[in-house]
Design a protein that fits this description.
The protein is mainly beta and about 70 residues long. It is built from one helix and eight strands; from the N terminus they run αββββββββ. The strands form three sheets. The protein has a three-stranded antiparallel sheet with strand order 1-4-5, with helices on one face. Strands 6-7-8 form a three-stranded antiparallel sheet, with no helix packed on it. The longest helix is centred in the N-terminal third of the chain and has 8 residues, at about 1-10. The radius of gyration is 13 Å and the shape is elongated. It starts with a helix and ends with a strand. About 10% of the residues are buried.
Amino acid sequence: MLRSLAKKTKRPVVMCNQVGGNDELVFDGGSLVFNAAGDLIARANLFEEDFVVVDTEAGAPSLRCNGAMRS
């Protein structure tokens, strides 16, 4: 759905998702970033805190807080 939205609007789409538990709810993390062409350019870890920085205009790979590159 997010990939289709990015392609249709020709704009980057960023989906930020919470991670952790809150009472009976469990949030799985795994935030996503799609570029304007609908390509997945970044994905945060599932079920753990993560920090990902993405420049949606540059088209470069995302940078993780530990300095490792991830695309």
